[in-house]
Amino acid sequence: MDNCIFCKIASGEIPAATLYEDDLFRVILDLGPASKGHALILPKNHYANLYEIPDEMVGKAMVLAKKMGTALKEALGCDGLNVVQNNGEAAGQTVFHFHMHLIPRYQDDQVGLSWTPGTLTDKMKAEVLEKVKKALG
Ligand code: AMP
Ligand code: ZN
């Protein structure tokens, strides 16, 4: 992808603060961190989102999230960690190259990743169960 900023960062064409690199992934510090240590896991190949990334790669990305999250906790002494992965503009995705956010959390920080719980009505439950099971085949 010629015009993809994360392709260029992942390949090393554009420099970034790299915490970790192997043949498949680069892990960098987010330039607009939600908290101290906010990191991004970038596959070196271009996949736009979760729907496109191959199973094998997404599995490896999650294993790397565990490794990096454990290192962030040990190094920074964070009290918690959010693993966030946005797909589509409606979900807040702004860079359309698959990535996982690792967001260290600190007691009483002001990072806003919460929502107001709704209600799972019988109607909603029936509709979603029926439609998703159908989609799964
Ligand atoms: P998302 O909203 O899930 O697409 O996340 C994109 C993230 O990439 C945001 O948290 C940005 O702060 C971050 N970001 C954008 N450009 C860069 C860059 N050049 N280097 C590091 N992080 C970046
Ligand atoms: Zn890309």
TrEMBL record:
CDD domains: HINT_subgroup
Position of sequence motif Histidine triad motif: 97-101
GO molecular function: catalytic activity
Any one GO biological process: nucleotide metabolic process
InterPro entries, per the entry: HINT, Histidine_triad_CS, Histidine_triad_HIT, HIT-like, HIT-like_sf
Record PROSITE patterns: HIT_1, HIT_2
A Pfam family recorded for this sequence: HIT
Active site (record annotation): H99
Domain HIT: 5-112
Protein name as annotated: HIT family protein
Lineage: Bacteria, Bacillati, Bacillota, Clostridia, Lachnospirales
